[in-house]
Amino acid sequence: MKKLLNIYNALIGIFLYAPIFVIVFFSFNSGTSRSSFEGFSLQWYAELLEDDLILRSLYYSVVIAVLSALIATVIGTLAAIGINSLKGWKKSAYLAVNNIPVVNPDIVTAISMMILFVFVLGLFNSMEMGFGTLLIAHITFNIPYVVLSVLPKLRGMDQNIYYAALDLGCPPMKSFIKVVIPQIMPGIVSGLIMAFTLSLDDFVISYFNSGATFQTLPITIYSMTKKPYSLKLNALSTILFAVVLVLMLAVNLKKPQKAQKKA
Q: How confident is the model at residue 255 (pLDDT cuts 50, 70, 90)?
């Protein structure tokens, strides 16, 4: 039975990672074929670094992801604290409202926000959709995920610590910063990372709310697939995969070191 489970896990791993390895492998192809390896070359990486459209789109994506993640984390953390302080049906109602954007299809959220932006911007004829509308859209769909990341930490926190700080003469705001924030910091960091990842990866909401003059990386990649396929996309995917892999290894290597220090 154990061997069958190991074989099953191995097959799942191959199924998940084989496409990525194929992309990485052919990113070093000297030819243009996606099925025949003609020789090792870094030409696609060189062409990628010379492609102004891709680099500009990557810059836009990172800026939007960083700004939306930071703003959504602040708003979501405060919202989580407010929801956690509620009782009874009010708390359940706010949680239900918060969960709707999470389970709602992206296409519905994207179209509804687009219609809202078109209506509002129609009142100002000189304005059009672009950086501002895209940033607002990303902040909006990121907030519920931050709330869901912070709430469990608030529920698991000992409330008596905060009240003890107040009894010892610490002002409410200072108690909140010095006592509550450190207790829920893992949830805040998790929400920040999740918001950044979702924003960087988003396509549907960005496609409907970015306008004609502002393109993020997923939109640029989508537009490139309509043309003859270029292995520059393989090179780009390889770089993004390598960055994520390095970050994951760094995080996982730090955990054993922290555990050893505590021991």
A: low
CA end-to-end distance (rounded Å), the chain: 36
Strand-pairing partners, residue 29, are 40
pLDDT of residue 1: 75
40 SS3 class: strand
Q: How distant is the alpha carbon of residue 154 from its chain centre?
A: 22
Q: Is the pLDDT of residue 185 over 60?
A: yes
Angstrom distance (rounded) from CA 84 to CA 94: 10
> Are 171 and 79 a contacting pair, CB within 8 Å?
no
Report residue 72 as tokens. 């959504």
- Tell me which amino acid residue 30 is: S
In contact, 58 and 131? CB cutoff 8 Å: no
- Alpha-carbon gap, residue 91 to 108, rounded angstroms: 25
Interior angle at CA 146, CA 145 and CA 147, nearest 5: 90
Confidence at residue 126, expressed as pLDDT on a 0 to 100 scale: 64
CB 117: neighbour CB atoms within 10 A? 21
Q: Are 94 and 86 in contact (CB under 8 A)?
A: yes
pTM for the model stands at 0.82
Cβ–Cβ under 8 Å, residues 124 and 165: no
**And the tokens for 241?**
């995969």
| Residue-level pLDDT at 70 | 94
For residue range 189-210, list pLDDT tens digits in order. Answer: 888 988 998 898 889 999 888 8
Q: Count Cα atoms within 13 angstroms, Cβ side, for 193.
A: 11
